[in-house]
Amino acid sequence: PGQNILLAGTGPLQLVLADQILKAGGKIEAILEAGNTGKNWLKGLKGIWGNWDFLKEGIRYLRSIQKAGVPLLRGHIILEARGEGQVQEAVIAKVDKDWRPRLNTARSVKVDTICLGYGLVSSTELTMLAECEHQYDIRRGGYIPLRKANMETSVPGIYAVGDGAGVAGRKAAIEEGCIAGISVASALGDISHATAGEQIKPYRKRLDKINRFRKILDDISLPRKGLYELATDDTVICRCEEVTLKQLKASLADDTIQMKDFKRMTRMGMGSCEGRMCGPSTIEMMRHRLNASAEDIGCLKPRPSIKPVALGLLAAEKPPEKAEV
């Protein structure tokens, strides 16, 4: 695989990936962007103002893609992957403002690899295990910890920054980390509150500017209802445990609407990824199908260890040496 690649999804990371594939010698059939950036150019201009580094990066990626002759199809989505034993073709179509496909525009393209990316998910396992309070924000990657302006969570002494506190990118993570570091120093009494406030100001200013640009990207790339209507009964929702949409719908017949109940009844989220793949999409599908809030549906609770650990690694650990008396 990889001789003829299709990229489908939304957001600027598609352009980054396309540039990397092209530099590695790969061939890209097309890039499908579900959002339509052309209709939001005025908002985009306001968001980009002052964020010139982002603009330069974007132009560089676009030039690389255009030079390679790769079509960038805005307002398009993938409907289906087809093939015997491997991907052989994909069905694509134009979408309306709610990302519902215009079926009269559907067509197939010959590809042997499909890369999908409809949004990012925040890694909040640590803050959830620490019992920090979370709120649902699909723009920032689902359930994210509530934070004060100094990046402290609802649990005193626990601070959260970067993609573990809402997806906003590398540069935003750096500014948040600096704010949190200064705040911790102040909380420990190493610097005064007044000094901390002054030191934080330039980081806060840069963070506000980055977040202004991020909001514009979110408005363009925020997944719409139509995306969550594409799954059919035989669509595998939880790949680890091979749970289909039909099985989830059967659980709904028993008045199940919470993620923890889906988990008990179908084993969804009990695989090695612990629901990182199926959890976010299931929450959104159920939100739209049931017209319920994310808080009503809940989330899959993480379990330690945070990342899968091979038993061989644990068995190879040497016990601590006993201290001499």
Please tell me about this protein's structure.
The protein is of the alpha/beta class. The chain is 39% helix and 16% strand. The protein contains 11 helices and 11 strands. The radius of gyration is 22 Å and the shape is globular. The mean pLDDT is 89.
* Low-confidence region ranges: none
Based on DSSP secondary structure assignment, what is the total number of beta strands?
Answer: 11
Helix count? Answer: 11
* Residues in helices, as a percent range: 25-40%
Shape call: globular
What's the alpha carbon Rg, rounded to whole Å? 22 Å
Average pLDDT metric: 89
**Order of strands across the widest beta sheet?**
3-2-1-7
Beta-strand residue fraction: 15-25%
How is the biggest beta sheet arranged?
4 strands, parallel
> What structural class do helix, strand and pairing data support?
alpha/beta
Write down the secondary-structure element order: EHEHHEEEEEHEEHHEEHHHHH
Q: What is the first-to-last residue Cα distance?
A: 62 Å
Q: What is the topology?
A:
Blueprint: E1 5-10, H1 13-23, E2 28-33, H2 41-48, H3 52-67, E3 72-74, E4 76-82, E5 89-94, E6 107-110, E7 113-118, H4 125-129, E8 134-137, E9 142-145, H5 170-187, H6 193-221, E10 236-238, E11 243-244, H7 245-252, H8 259-266, H9 278-290, H10 294-297, H11 311-316
Parallel strand pairs: 1-2, 1-7, 2-3
Antiparallel strand pairs: 4-5, 5-6, 8-9, 10-11
Helix pairs in contact: 1-3, 2-6, 5-6
